Amino acid sequence: MTTPVLQAKGLTKRYGRVVAIDGSDLELLPGEILAVIGDNGAGKSSLIKALSGALVPDSGEILLDGRPVHFRNPMEARAAGIETVYQTLAVAPGLDIADNLFLGREQRRPGPLGSIFRMLDRKRMREEAARHMSELGVATLQNIGQPVESLSGGQRQAVAVARSAAFGSKVVILDEPTAALGVKEGNRVLQLIRDVRDRGLPVILISHNMPHVFEIADRIHIQRLGRRIAVITPGSHSMSDAVAIMTGAAPPPEAP
Amino acid sequence: MTTPVLQAKGLTKRYGRVVAIDGSDLELLPGEILAVIGDNGAGKSSLIKALSGALVPDSGEILLDGRPVHFRNPMEARAAGIETVYQTLAVAPGLDIADNLFLGREQRRPGPLGSIFRMLDRKRMREEAARHMSELGVATLQNIGQPVESLSGGQRQAVAVARSAAFGSKVVILDEPTAALGVKEGNRVLQLIRDVRDRGLPVILISHNMPHVFEIADRIHIQRLGRRIAVITPGSHSMSDAVAIMTGAAPPPEAP
Amino acid sequence: MTATADFEVRRHDSFGLRLQHLLHGNPVLGPLAVLVVAIVAFSIVNARFFSAANLSLVLLQVTVIATLALGQTLIILTAGIDLSAGAIAVFSSILMALFATDAGVPAPLALLLGFACGTAMGAINGFLVTRIKLPPFIVTLGTLTIFFSLNSVVSNSETVRGADMPGLMTWTGEAIPIGDFRLSYGSIIMLLLFGFFAYALSWTAWGKHVYATGDDVEAARLAGIRTGRVLFSVYTTAGLLYAVAGWILIGRLASASPNVGTEYNLDSITAVVLGGTSLFGGRGGVIGTLIGALIVGVFRNGLQLAGVEVVWQGFAIGLLVLIAVSLDQWIRKVRS
Amino acid sequence: MTATADFEVRRHDSFGLRLQHLLHGNPVLGPLAVLVVAIVAFSIVNARFFSAANLSLVLLQVTVIATLALGQTLIILTAGIDLSAGAIAVFSSILMALFATDAGVPAPLALLLGFACGTAMGAINGFLVTRIKLPPFIVTLGTLTIFFSLNSVVSNSETVRGADMPGLMTWTGEAIPIGDFRLSYGSIIMLLLFGFFAYALSWTAWGKHVYATGDDVEAARLAGIRTGRVLFSVYTTAGLLYAVAGWILIGRLASASPNVGTEYNLDSITAVVLGGTSLFGGRGGVIGTLIGALIVGVFRNGLQLAGVEVVWQGFAIGLLVLIAVSLDQWIRKVRS
Amino acid sequence: ACNRGTGEPVVGLITKTDTNPFFVTMKVGAQSAAATAGVDLQTFAGKVDGDNEAQVLAIENLISFGAVGFMITPNDSKAIVPAIDRAHEAGMLVIALDTPVEPAEAADATFATDNYEAGRLIGQWAKAKFATEGKDARIAMLDLNANQVSVDVQRDQGFLEGFGIDVADKGRIGDESDPRIAGHDVTDGNEEGGRTAMENLLQKDPSINLVYTINEPAAAGAYQALKAAGREREVTIVSVDGGCPGVDNVAGGVIGATSMQFPIKMAELGVAAIAEYAKTGVKPQNTAGKDFVDTGVQLITDQPQAGVEAKDSAWGKQNCWG
Ligand SMILES: Nc1ncnc2c1ncn2[C@@H]1O[C@H](COP(=O)(O)OP(=O)(O)OP(=O)(O)O)[C@@H](O)[C@H]1O
Ligand SMILES: Nc1ncnc2c1ncn2[C@@H]1O[C@H](COP(=O)(O)OP(=O)(O)OP(=O)(O)O)[C@@H](O)[C@H]1O
Ligand SMILES: [Mg+2]
Ligand SMILES: [Mg+2]
């Protein structure tokens, strides 16, 4: 078996009396799209937050390319090439779209203006931002200089997705990236995910949209009550099988 | 034709250079489920915010049971029986689930404790809250006293949906109520919407989930670039027709 | 791996986790622990500290600030801030004193007039915050200077002596001896007010609305709360509480002086923050504030008894405040 | 119906909407309008107000506060607040003066030592905020009392006279006459600093990170910004700016006095808020602060020239501040 | 100061603030006097000028310590009286320093500068100087603050009386109608306030040529404003205090004349009186004809005027405080 790019073993996270992750495992193989599905509150977001450094698990191990890593914050995961779109989007509401897209990776002017005066290349960042947004099919955007807080729910999500797709270098993690998106925009995001995979990056996709999941995933990780209870493939199981396992209506298949 | 329960004529709303609603109309007939679909940024949320008093349109007219109304804030719409779930959910993050469900409609203890000391009936509110949440199939909730900010995305949405379903008396408006919900929970919300309709209340449902829309809607209002460009029914048009009209790929049918 | 995980979970369960549960449910335990530590430490340094007489002195010394901080807490819970608290208290005390002496109004009426003025000043703040929609900081900064200035004008910058006032005005300064412990009526009023608002905040709809408004005013508005009314009620109530603090102040100083209170705003805000209420609104409560006020009182009194020189007392208080909040922070640290 | 709609849209386009666009893009126009109105009004009341000599005086009088408010703006942009600003400025000024006189250190070195101390004091604030994760209000309240206390101890509460200092220390007080207008070197330094930070905030990555951190610290962290570092850099930079303000203060008073600066915190925060920066972080900018500081300076000076009695000046300033923000609010009111 | 348990009687000193050099000096004087007299000195201070509550608190603490007596420079002369009454009930000797309480009999004794006299001396000096030079005065009055506190009022009114201006109500600043007064402003008694106030008054009336200041830091600030306007040579500044930097400023021509007070003497007398009381139970007596013990004022100037007794700055240097 190939070494997983990203692997989690026995992760646990509790909040007081609430158990968010309860000894969960996860494997992400090179070049694959791994979907993570599960009921609300199954611990999907908590699991990927642990992978991306946004929360520090109480116990368990995370391996990147087979080597143990301990991310204490999102920057460290990001530096290791893991790019994440959080369910809460993590945008700075007062900044505009371009600023948000390039947050933490701002581009400077060429020449001394950039190197000495550290001047940002606003024009270029705006142009690129406009390009990224239209790639996602967000055509209704009327003003690229709008602060993100004044965008519609879907537009805001598109900003977050565009950011991760543009900058991921090792793994891209997307937590419900299409939840607020329209049909067309949602399909664009699926295409974008495929593009990312075709660039050789594996992708973790959390989604409640079964047609999307079955259309795009190579493998499907099913989370239930804080644990991985099964890994299936779109070939081996049908959508209704998956839903039945996820909700506990059917027993999980034998462990792989 | 029957008088619409809720009707909007020529609503307009601008934000600086951005036109959010551009002379949009809407009719909601008694006892129907009206779906509103449209691209991201088409102005769906802005439109229903105007109906629910959360924004005051620049121009245009709103009629409730045929009589013009001018809501200056959400309380006035609520007092008129219009209950809304906003896309941003509008929950108080630090309060717990029961407090949020009953926010603004708290129940007091019976007897002098309630009437003189105005003491809240916390126990009853918690019990009812637990019932509402489990009706929505949110079974993973481990602690009914958790503050809403610590809930998962879907759990939080369930709180908002439960609130509107429990208290709507004339019209229920739901802005993407299933976006963050799991398959099972999403289906429960659809059932809940049907139940509300069966109680005789008309419902406006904004959703990007075409299967949901076509499963449940009586009529479908298609919004594009701030305007209503068509009203279709699941019988008259297919999903792909609807998507084509919505994205501008197909011309809208003749006005009804 | 599983073994380690099990071990880790169990270990947390045993002490850390349980303590956390306790603290999670009772956010006042942090400040309370700080208070207890401070009392124990000062008692060790100077045995006289932990005498009934001295402890009753501490309670007496914090009564006015605690009453002010109670109003301040309400406002801070709504994500506001009130810089005019001290000015309202002092102005109200001057007014009621002048009514009761120069104007010759019967004492109970003079008292009520003073309360009415405090309430009205709070209402002015509330009006500016909710109607003109100005930031609370700037509103109360403006009214602070206005009220202080009016205060000088009305009082002619002269102190009204308690001896010239009817007994009701200075009644708050009288004390019931309980052994060596002397409990003043002012302190009793203060404690009753704290009890009342602790109840109102957690057991009435009004309290829920205050928290919801402070947490996220837009969400509260969309959820159907009349946030304007809630805010107005909070500022007005706070004004009344400040006026009561003014009455207690007369009893404490046995006079009504226009020149006190310059430090009251910062002191009252300090008590609120030490008590664990967030300046960003929506989190905290009044019992914490009472403990916060007591912490400051204990520090002041304890340092003096410990024989720390005046020049170094400021230094020590600053340091202790920092240590107190660090300790509190450490206690409530729920690993996120 | 359509006719009405069209009409309405067009009507808005014509004036209201255009003005709104302008103001939307330039949030400093609100405070600027207030400033202009104030200047015009005072000029009408007393013709002497609008003379080059008097205007240069106003600039001179606000220089120290404006420099402090610059550092304060940075901190408030990150949703913090700094109550120790004045204490750091005064302590730094005392230190550099003592280095240059009693300690006999060469003037440029004494200056640098003073700057280093200010920076270090800012760094202490930053450390407590980012590492121990204490609320900025309580941190700076604690360090405020600590620094003021150290200040008394170090200076022995004695003023160091400018005449005893090397010329460099008081150089900031010297002025270049431009006609009747006297531009002091201190004011020039202050204006340059404002220019520098206006640039840094809107044209560098650091500036974006400051705004993002202040806007929503959790989101900024998740977006990959080292929010701890950003905050630390802001507090440290602010400390340095306060030390520069301390140097300017020496020039202004031709002495280093430990007894000034009690009002500096509130004054600097007032300037920031009048300039349109939100106390909740993430919104605003330094140019607004400069205008805010000038507004206060114009009020003070204008009221005195208008012959308003001292007792009523507080009243008038409070009222004017309220009117100023109301006007600003009205101007920027974008119907939501 | 924490040698408690030695059995020495506890004596308190409560000053207005602990940052003003005047009170710092007073404290140093009291400390050395306490060492000589063999008493245990406990010091307290208000946080800011006018902070009455901190002083009440200090008295409460002293009562709880069982002190034999204390000295106080009251921040609020009237409002402190009830607390002093309580101290008396506890059998303590109370001495007001520098500022009398109201009514003065509420304290057992007052050791103070006659502030009215201090103001009057500089007023007389200025009057003589202007008379000699044949100039008409345009006077700027730089007071403490808007609260009309007693020291502020007495110095201000004393100066005006000394200068020969009708002061109307002796207990109020600013009710005079004499046209020679160009204006009043407040300084908070520090350099910054002094400078800003002077700048603004000069804009209002550029012909100002005589400046009364509440204290020497305010005078130093005012001088800077005059210097920036290029008017420092034509304008005379008078002040009150006698702090060493102030005397330096007299020598340097910044201040024309200042009235020196003697805080060390106040403190020494106070400590001695309480020590005496502790031993013998005898209370101190007031200066004949006054309701307080006058610790003296001395006019310091290098431009002596006929008919006004004065010492020069060299003498001042030897006797200054701070
Ligand atoms: N900070 C917190 N404090 C307490 N409980 C929390 C916290 N964060 C998450 N939880 C709880 O942990 C559980 C898992 O939450 P998580 O967000 O991982 O679910 P999820 O699978 O992503 O759900 P969804 O599909 O609704 O987004 C939930 O029951 C939630 O209430
Ligand atoms: N406060 C505001 N300021 C400026 N522009 C705004 C504001 N609110 C909304 N808009 C703009 O108005 C347009 C319509 O927004 P709206 O939220 O109504 O879209 P929507 O149809 O609900 O989209 P979605 O499906 O993504 O939720 C968008 O282009 C949005 O950017
Ligand atoms: Mg989730
Ligand atoms: Mg929307």
From TrEMBL, chains A, B:
CDD domains (UniProt xref): ABC_Carb_Monos_I (cd03216)
GO molecular function term, any single one: ATP binding
The keyword Nucleotide-binding appears for this protein: yes
Pfam families: ABC_tran
Residue ranges of every copy of the ABC transporter domain listed in the record: 6-250
Keywords per UniProt: ATP-binding, Nucleotide-binding
Protein name: ATP-binding cassette domain-containing protein
Upper classification of the organism: Bacteria, Bacillati, Actinomycetota, Actinomycetes, Micromonosporales
From TrEMBL, chains C, D:
Localization annotation: Cell membrane
The organism's place on the tree of life at top rank: Bacteria
Topology of this chain in the membrane: Multi-pass membrane protein
Entries under InterPro entries matching the protein: ABC_transp_permease
Keywords noted in UniProt: Cell inner membrane, Cell membrane, Membrane, Transmembrane, Transmembrane helix, Transport
PANTHER family, alphabetized: ABC TRANSPORTER PERMEASE PROTEIN YPHD-RELATED, ABC TRANSPORTER PERMEASE PROTEIN YPHD-RELATED-RELATED
Protein name (record): ABC transporter permease
Organism whose genome encodes this protein: Actinoplanes sichuanensis
